[in-house]
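[Q] Does anyone have a clean structure-token version of this?
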Amino acid sequence: MRLGFTTFASLMRKLFYWLALGLVFWTSQACDPCRKMARSKDFALKDSAAYCYYERKQYESAALLLEELVGVYGPGPQAEKTMYYLASAKYYAGELLTASFTYNEFLQRYPGSSRAEAAHYQLAQCYYRMSNPWRLDQRDTYTAIERLQLFIELYPNGEQAKEATRQLENLRNRLATKAFRQADLYLNIYHYKAASFAFNSFMQDYPDSPYREEAQFKQYKATWYYADGSVDARKKERFEEANRLYIKFLDKYPNSKYLRSAERLYASTAQRMTLSGEKRLKRDRNQRRMERQEKAETQSKKEASPKAPKEKKSAEE
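[A] Here you go.
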């Protein structure tokens, strides 16, 4: 009797499950005014269904219908509208690369359209959103900058001009950060000549960057170390170039937080210029040997310190 009741209850649960599922499906069909029009063979109804989905923010469904309709309509206002909304549906669906191609094609076909301003802005937005962080490839960043500049030139008083200008500044700062970090990397791996050149290029390309002060100091630092490592025959002229950069840095940033470091390098310039190559190498070698010895002594003290309590305990025993 218990087994029969359990089986009956199980069957009833399954029945209620399938009834509920069917009810949900029927309700969704009944409450979706777009679906019936989308299934029609009448292109006018399909057109209405596409914009129905678009207004309901079902952009994937809208894009499927609009793609079909683009191939149906001949040249004219209807085709223009369909292509614009197809690009927009792709954009809002997150298909940014496809949307950029479609916006670009729209602008080539209909350059005088009333929707051209919006299409130019949306095309720029596609590349702006595809732009990578500064550590990664910046091809889309350069394209976004070009598109934003074009939009601002074409529509300087447009509703989106202010936002486009803000985004343009943001992208330029991203490129500036990448250029500065690359120059800094050369300095950190002791490629001083490349670092000096890279910092100079950075300051020419991004004169208003917040990294400008640090870049100017590090250009001097890289040039100084490049001169210090040069052969004796080239040492004087390269230190003179470093001195010119020091004076230039001092004139522009007399209260810089990097001033003390720059002054230390400048103060040792005369001594390093008169030091012969052989003596300089010997001095640097001795200095590195002393640093290694100090490091080894510090490490040995650290390794010996945990053993002290253990020896004390054994002595007490």
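[Q] Thanks! Anything notable?
[A] Residues 22-30, 308-317 have pLDDT under 50 and may be disordered.
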